[in-house]
Structure formats: structure tokens, C-alpha cells
Amino acid sequence: xxxxxxIIIVAAAIGIAYLxxxxxxxxxxxxxxxPLFGTPCDFEVIDERVPVHSGPGPxxxxxxxxxxxxxxxxxxxxxxxxxxxxxxRWARIDALRHIDGELCR
Length: 105
Hints:
By secondary structure, this protein is α+β, with helices and mostly antiparallel strands. It has helices at about 5-20, 25-30; strands at about 40-45, 50-55, 60-65, 70-75, 80, 80-85, 90, 95-100.
């Protein structure tokens, strides 16, 4: 197989893997689970509908939505009034009620 063809196939595979990883957040994505890094803390969603942003701030793209009563794991990272839920997943701090995790009070 020519080197150029092999490079194109590898690049296509990486592109497909990236697109699959970037799909929208669903309820299954944010239900309590172990985060990728840091200390997990548990929260309950207290607002009726809470947008999940790709970064900390209302100007960041919305990639999903949380609904009242959902339980989820989060990191202790807070920035600009948002809590990091996971990689590229942030929600407003005031829309979440702390349930467990000493470092996330």
C-alpha cells in the first residue's frame, strides 16, 4: 500500500474518532460516574432546565441539557460561576445542590 494512502486512512480514522467523541451530552453522559480526573463530588440539579456548556460561561456553546432532579458527578473546579462536570462539560453553580464530596462545598 502506498505511503500516501496509508496516511489518508489514518487521518480519516482519527477524524472519525474525534467526531464520535464530540457528540452531544445526554442524560447518560451526566449521570453519576467517575470523572476523568480530580476528586468526584455529587450534585443534584435544582433548576428545571440547565444548559450544559462546552466551557465555563454563558457564551460557550450549549452541548446538552440537565433537568431537575438529575444526580451527577462533578469536579471541584469552579470558574466564572460554573462547575466543571467533565471534559468540556460545564453547568451553572447556582443550578446545582451539593450532595456529597468534601472538597466541593
